[in-house]
Amino acid sequence: MHQENKIDLSVIIPVFNEKNFLTKLFEEIKNYFNDSKNEVIFVDDGSTDGSTNILKGLKEKKNYKFLFKLIKLDINSGKGKAIQTGIKNSVGEYILLQDADLELDTRDAREMYDMIKNNSDIKCIFGSRYLSGKLKKNNYFFNSLIGKLNSLIFNIFFAQSISDVHCGLKILHRNVIEKIKLTVNDFGIEIDLASQIVRNNFNIYEFGVSYFFRSKAEGKKITWIDGLKSFYYLIKSRFFDNSISTNLSILYSSIYMAYVGSHFGMGLGNTLFIIFFFIFGSVIGIHFKIITSSIIFFSIFIGSFFSKGNGTTFAVIIFFIIGIFIARSVKQHFINTKFNRYF
Length: 343
Hints:
With about 350 residues, the protein is of the alpha/beta class.
């Protein structure tokens, strides 16, 4: 009998109409994770192509050592919902998220597990399809472009340096899972997950993985529409899913930076400067609370007294950089104290 309280690893695999891949995937799972201390959780997300029967048949064979859990959702609710359901039913110290379509190599998943298990300082590893020198097949330029663009925007919004926020292969320590609350039900789950990990001050490590892109004819679910929808999730996760103090900081810094922008250019150019500085101010508000943000504003204000004409612009820029440096130093000083939320 399996002892669930002794499970080291929970492998969560969302499944929606993947009958052509499940048998091979199952054999790969057995190759790399066939251990009594592991559990494999297949979440059937309302499949209609016979995937359910295939999973039941694989479970009934009992030619494996791991704990096999099969969860059936009555209707297709989305990848995010399937992952949330799998997590709620998992007990492992580590949680591995693995897609069912074999675009990503299970061997890489095993390597990621070994890395995180043997290094107590690492709590989160994301696979990256863009980092490695491993084998790849990708015929869809637009999908790749959207993925890289989303990763860039994510990095700007959250001050990170992640190359592939959308990769479906991830492994997390239970401590990370207990700190976050996932709410997105579709493919936006990747952004929801990454943003909450960063907000809770966990470092995201990356590991280059192999990638074998499949076409729509082969069962590809995600489309360019999902890529565009991810822009919405980026905006939502960064500018709306915040604490009250962060939202106040965003509003405060946006207003004073718009005020700064009003001193640049004339006519239409002045309007564009105001808009640009307003947006830039919102990003400042994300990273600095009102006290540290005020340091930046005060520094800019001092700079405005120096020189005249174009020289004033140069002085404002210099004092803005000085303000950022001072604000970051102050923030770093208080980051591990009870006053952290004010800085």
